[in-house]
Structures
1.
Amino acid sequence: MQTSVTQSLMDAFKVFFPYADGLGSYAGGRLLPGDGPPVALQDPATGRDVLAYADAGPQVVEAAAQAAQAAQAAWAALPHAQRGRIVFAVGAVIRAQQESLARLESINAGKPIRDCRVEVAKVAEMFEYYGGWADKFHGQVIPVPSGHLNYTRREPMGVVLQITPWNAPIFTCGWQVAPAIAMGNGVLLKPSELTPCTSLAVAMLAEQAGVPAGLINVLAGYGHTTGQAAIGHAAVRKVVFVGSPATGKRVAAAAAERIVPCVLELGGKSANIVFDDANLEKASQGAQAAIFSAAGQSCVAGSRLLVQRSIYERFVAMVAQGADRIRVGPPQDDKTEVGPIANNKQYAHVQGMIQDGLAAGAVLASQSADCPRPGFYVRPTVLSQVSNSMRLAQEEVFGPVLAAIPFDTEEEAVSIANDTRFGLAGAVWTGDTARAHRVAAKVKAGTFWINAYKIINVASPFGGYGDSGYGRSSGMEALYEYTQTKSVWVETAAETAPVFGYAP
């Protein structure tokens, strides 16, 4: 007999796939069952088993790749403006299904429903933004000294593989798919095996907006089986991966075997720097949002709070008191601000990192991290007296755990911020404008905020330094990632003499 959570998940899924009797992959406009081992899903809010589905496997990957190649050829042949209108229309279809998509995301990923509504709206915005770029990103004419007409073309890569994580399934789906198809590519999307539902729904909704069947295919299954088969498929001409550095290395190595380029969006250990001349009330609120939103399961989370020593005790107490007031509860409750950790493996990791920090000398400044309810809940946790050499300050926790580190001078703050293998994001809070820009220039991070945190938009480039990855996946810069440049030379002289030489 189905549990209530199983029924809720299937009811939410059947809004988009009314005849489905379970989960599968979406290839060539059809929901296909896998033929691999079972993938078990759990409810993050209760810890109970929900359902299982079969890993897609190589046969489904082959069907999806063939569908993507056929659809991409026809899609790339359309006038750019026509493609753009269709991509823009995907946004409208997603907006029309905002509540249904948010509910499905909340149940499958364990995210607070109010956060899911915001993320669905952002996904619609992504398709609208890139729809507008479809006929505005093009080559140029180059005044070469020989007098030839030389121009460049921006051409699609072909079929791209995009591997997305469990912490923000629908957000990362739109973040990757929209620019790829706007530039004329076909897509194999491999979401986390734990959270495939909304990605499947987006692919189906895109076809309702006019995207040809087979252009967007969603592979539901494990990374080491289905994902590996997709990386190895001859149709795939680029790989985009969002996830952990350890897995990113394996993905990049597998792609390199086929001389296929990658974009990697990996982890972070971002420094949120607070000087004693900052607006402490706003900085306190910003510090809480930086780490506790999405239960800390965000690659840009401000997990290291660097506070000037003169205000350290007072400011850490402000943040800890705010953390204790945050409403932790079931994802479906509109009042919930922080939901559960998405899965049991991650929950165990977060708890282990907290205990490791305490054993190393960190001090609990907030209430206990334990939460008196079933499921994978961790209370917003503030740990003070942290040294940047601790494992807690060097490794990604990916949970609602804040490590507060004191500093004395601007130079020391920058040094601590850069003393990490990561370089994804960071922030500074100060009333000194000149110092704000100095720190922004010196901290090694792909995104940096001044007197703010965690503000991102599809129009702005996003990516990391160091072990946080390479390449950019939003803004105009993403369009370079999804196209390749062809240089065309045209002879314009009336009479030409033979030229003997060679091209490098």
Note: The mean pLDDT is 96.
2.
Amino acid sequence: MSYVTSTLSNLLHQTAFLNLTWGNYVMILVALIFLYLAIKHDFEPLLLVPIAFGMLLVNIYPDIIAEPYTDALGVEHGGGLFHYFYILDEWSILPSLIFMGVGAMTDFGPLIANPKSFLLGAAAQLGIYMAYFLAIFMGFNGKAAAAISIIGGADGPTSIFLAGKLGQTNLMGPIAVAAYSYMSLVPIIQPPIMKALTTEKERKIKMQQLRPVSKLEKILFPIIITVVVCLILPTTAPLVGMLMLGNLFRECGVVKQLTETASNALMYIVVILLGTSVGATTSAEAFLNASTLKIVVLGLVAFAVGTAGGVLLGKLMCKLSGGKINPLIGSAGVSAVPMAARVSQKVGAEADPTNFLLMHAMGPNVAGVIGTAVAAGTFMAIFGVV
């Protein structure tokens, strides 16, 4: 009888129920909410589903991301499954591969056809630099402030990349979750800001059709951007270089197999590894603290200011062009590709169902990806990180 009692007791103590804290239950609830938003409302499900499931798993079984260790007897114990996924984040491998996939999936034609889009993409980075100084004011050191501020670009891979390069791995989880969450919530966060800063007349502006872009221009663009940007800021090479390599695969027309692999199979494998490992950094102990709350608030401020910066420059360009530019496309300057461009299209269509802004918004959207990578490279250069 004692054997049975002992066995049942051991089984009971092996369950998660006796080991979970109230914080674990809170994070499990957050994970379920994220899953609901992704599945029911289609908020960036490719990102939010693996992140939320990683969050769910780590708060039920924390050892899934445990580091390897050697016990007192000298016996080596391996780490948890997600620990090895997470190492690929720390080494900047997964963020760089994501950029290659994005490049292989993206048509840079709208940006080439309208180079002024670079200005809108740059203006949308305003939130990054404002958040940087605000984070310092709130007590974060320079490197932590820089890593946090990149959330304003709504670019998860760049946020992870910079946090790793600046040695802020302790903040990587909250930063990445905030960045991906705001990317997912673009359709909710951006429209009120866009409508508040524009008039109905401005939202109804129809832009002229973009000029055709030749194949030669599309081939030369990634090569020229790589040379120019990486000569000025070599630290951007892992991100900008891989982005442009993926785009060159797409546009050169002679490596169809590489294009398909980079934009499909490899891209989705990387998203699974990155998403689940990022979600697994959100254990209750690591996530439920004052610093995380500050990061979430700073990220939201940065994202809102970045959206406003793009729209306001769009308004200025609208006036200077005699009303030929719809200010709404400026909001797409944050680098949530292609969600931000779709939101510009949606808000414009609400004002005038015959208005088609998607291709015009893709220019600032792609420019925002490059701009966020440049901002990350700038911070790395400032702090002497290579």
Note: Residues 96 and 238 are 6 Å apart (CA to CA).
